[in-house]
Specification:
Blueprint: E1 2-8, H1 13-24, E2 28-33, H2 36-50, E3 54-58, H3 66-76, E4 79-86, H4 101-127, E5 132-137, H5 150-169, E6 175-181, H6 189-192, H7 200-203, H8 209-222, E7 226-228, H9 231-240, H10 245-256
Parallel strand pairs: 1-2, 1-4, 2-3, 4-5, 5-6, 6-7
Helix pairs in contact: 1-2, 1-8, 3-4, 4-5
The structure holds NADP nicotinamide-adenine-dinucleotide phosphate (NAP).
NADP nicotinamide-adenine-dinucleotide phosphate (NAP) is lined by residues 9-15, 33-35, 38, 60-62, 87-90, 110, 137, 139, 182, 184-185, 187-189, 192, 209.
């Protein structure tokens, strides 16, 4: 069985850069996202440049039965998942009571349910290995409530709490769980989440997807449980914890408000 890195959301942004890094380091890949052509192009690029095997599996992970389909596919491919990278995620900007329910449901289905289900499906075989890694992508949004992106912030809070808890459960196994928390990052996320209306990206330093992916890969190998990208982003949760949550939430609202 081939040692494989399974990466969700590999068709753009942080996931695509993570795929390039895993390929550079010689790992076989199983990459997934909805856009098939993007996955096919990436497969061609990485196989040519690094001489590794790349399997693609286009699927909408917000559908309830998709994680099981993805798992069944890996079994048919005899792919042994040593690295599970739960990266795919979406957000939505605006007042919750005026939002489209289907978008909010998609955020929860993808950011929470798919990530949890994939972890549940792959962990039993991972704990039998001498060493295996889970890299979950949360966000600095995980550390406080986020007015105008309430469901997204809450979903990332879930990813953080879930990851830390299972990292503890797995401490006597060869599996580590790293929760990567990027701050604002150049990718397709901002546009897709309607965040071009928000001042957040103007007010905070913005990293490239490549910088975040390199940091995520490095901290995953170190087995770090919570990896926050960027010095300012690392200090922020400490400062946040010193103030009343109502005040912190009001500050986030100010940062997130419309231009
Ligand atoms: N960019 C930021 O500022 C930022 C900050 C903190 C955390 N993050 C987190 O980083 C992760 C990666 O985001 P990104 O910034 O790289 O954004 P991105 O460029 O929009 O990439 C998102 C990826 O998720 C995939 N995806 C979206 N919906 C999907 C679905 N229903 N089923 C399967 N795949 C789906 C997309 O592919 P398809 O469209 O082809 O399906 C794409 O590959 C997310 O979890 C995000 O929350 C981003």
């Amino acid at each position: 069985m081939k040692k494989t890195a399974l990466i969700t959301g590999a068709s753009s942004g942080i996931g695509l850069e993570l795929a390039r890094i895993f390929a550079r380091e010689g790992h076989s890949l199983l990459i997934t996202a909805r856009r098939k052509e993007r996955l096919d192009d990436l497969k061609k690029e990485l196989e040519q440049e690094f001489g590794i095997d790349v399997i693609t599996f286009p699927i909408d992970l917000a559908d309830e039965d998709s994680p099981q389909k993805l798992y069944d596919f890996t079994q048919k491919q005899s792919a042994s998942v040593h690295f599970l990278v739960n990266n795919a995620g979406v957000g939505d900007y605006g007042l919750f009571h005026k939002s489209d329910w289907n978008r909010q449901a998609a955020i929860m289905n993808l950011n929470i349910r798919a990530l949890t289900h994939l972890t549940h499906l792959f962990l039993p075989s991972m704990v039998e290995k001498e060493r295996a890694y889970i890299l979950n992508i949360a966000s600095t949004a995980a550390f406080q409530p986020g007015p105008f992106m309430s469901v997204y912030y809450a979903s990332k809070n879930y990813v953080l709490a879930f990851g830390e808890a299972i990292a503890n459960e797995l401490q006597d196994t060869g599996v580590t769980v790293t929760t990567l928390c990027p701050g604002p990052t150049e990718s397709e996320f901002q546009k897709l989440a309607n965040m071009e209306k928000s001042k957040l990206f103007d007010r905070l330093p913005v990293a490239t997807s490549q910088q975040v992916a390199e940091y995520g890969y490095k901290t995953m190998l170190q087995g770090k449980r919570v990896a926050i990208y960027g010095a300012l982003n690392r200090i922020a949760p400490k400062i946040v914890s010193l103030f009343p949550r109502k005040f912190v939430t009001a500050v986030v609202r100010k940062i997130q408000e419309r231009k």
